[in-house]
Design brief:
Elements (H helix, E strand, L loop, with lengths): L1 H8 L3 H12 L1 H34 L3 H9 L3 H12 L3 H26 L2 E2 L4 H9 L5 H6 L1 E2 L1 H24 L9 H4 L18 H5 L5 H33 L6 H11 L1 H12 L3 H26 L2 E2 L2 H23 L2 E2 L1 H22 L7
Antiparallel strand pairs: 1-4, 2-3
Helix pairs in contact: 2-12, 3-12, 3-14, 4-9, 4-15, 5-6, 5-15, 6-14, 6-15, 6-16, 6-17, 7-16, 9-15, 12-13, 14-15, 16-17
Length: 367
């Protein structure tokens, strides 16, 4: 964990500039940045949900596919992985990738199920792909050393997995989550009546009646996503300064707070769509993020340097990701995420942390 923080302090580019700015504001300024980041993230997530929904309906394409594309890529994690790899901290980068995949399920999906249980209507092949994603790492981990070639293979696996889902959605006559509140509003003649919660936003007056409005909604979705990424950077920078300022950087409490803050983006991108009746965005975020974390993100790490796999990855961290992902896949396969599913997934995540701290001396920072 200390390696992650040290590397983050040396980040370049926009993220490094943001962190430098926040550090210069002192502890009070960092707290204010946290508040601003949280508000901005909430607003941008709300906008992304509205924009993606309208884009999918206007363009008559799968909302689930759009959700996979827009929310499945963990841009901030990719930046962190590149920074850590460039700083000869590939082990920390791998830990972050695995930690992210686990947190997406043990925190994000678990909270969504606890707060509002929801139906799931996913094709079995999507669920199988989700369950098997961590298994793709096994042959590479068994080799003991990951190289540039292995990184390319994992990136290819990521592209194929995402491409398969997008292609399947494009070909399907019945889109994923056809039975949800939004799906029921898609009429047989192709007409669309937006549910009440999506019927009134100010942008409707500017975009709604224009030519190619679907593409305009898609462009606005991109802008909202940029806002989400920027807000996440503010939260990450602010949280690290606050935790350091209170002297919590080496404590379990500090690691817990940092993880909660770093996963806030994914929590919002999952819970809010579920709450507003479009779980396809939330589940798309979970499936896309896990697929990316254990394939694309790990592959990116290997592009810069080789990595010696530690024994704990093979004996504990990766097996935990495999088991928890398989369990989540089973719950998705059953057709409804129930509240007790969330408590079980969350409990397993807490147990993972406790074992990692007691037995292995630490946990990977996830976000």
């Amino acid at each position: 964990m200390d390696e992650d923080v040290d590397a983050a302090e040396n980040e370049g580019g926009l993220e490094g500039a943001i962190e430098g700015f926040v550090e210069a504001q002192g502890l009070l300024g960092a707290v204010l940045v946290l508040v601003v980041g949280g508000v901005l993230l909430t607003v941008c997530v709300e906008k992304l949900i509205s924009y993606l929904t309208r884009a999918a309906l206007k363009l008559k394409i799968s909302l689930f596919a759009l959700a996979i594309l827009f929310t499945g890529f963990e841009f901030d994690d990719t930046i962190l992985a590149l920074v850590l790899s460039a700083g000869d901290l590939e082990g920390a980068a791998l830990g972050t990738a695995l930690g992210t995949g686990l947190a997406i399920i043990g925190v994000t999906l678990a909270l969504a199920a606890i707060i509002r249980p929801f139906p799931v209507d996913l094709p079995s092949d999507y669920i199988a792909l989700f369950a098997m994603a961590p298994l793709m790492l096994i042959p590479f981990v068994l080799l003991g050393t990951l190289t540039f070639v292995h990184g390319l293979l994992l990136l290819v696996a990521f592209v194929l997995a995402f491409g398969y889902i997008i292609a399947r959605e494009y070909q399907r006559d019945t889109p994923v989550f056809r039975t949800t509140e939004l799906g029921e509003e898609i009429q047989a003649d192709g007409g669309v009546a937006l549910p009440a919660e999506f019927s009134e936003i100010s942008e409707d007056r500017l975009v709604g009646g224009r030519f190619a409005s679907g593409w305009l909604w898609l462009l606005l979705s991109v802008l909202a996503l940029i806002g989400i990424v920027f807000a996440s950077m503010l939260l990450e920078a602010g949280s690290e300064v606050v935790i350091d300022g209170f002297g919590l950087e080496e404590t379990v409490f500090g690691a817990t707070v940092l993880t909660v803050i770093l996963t806030f983006e994914d929590v919002m991108l999952t819970i809010e769509p579920v709450r507003r009746g479009v779980p396809e965005i939330g589940v798309g975020n979970v499936i896309g993020s896990v697929l990316f974390s254990v394939t694309g993100n790990v592959g990116v790490i290997m592009l810069l340097s080789d990595l010696e796999i530690s024994r704990s990855v093979l004996t504990f961290h990766l097996p935990t990701v495999i088991v928890v992902t398989a369990l989540a896949a089973y719950f998705l396969y059953k057709g409804k995420l129930k509240r007790w599913h969330g408590f079980l997934l969350g409990g397993l995540y807490v147990a993972y942390w406790l074992i990692a701290i007691v037995v292995f001396g630490g946990v990977p920072i996830s976000g």
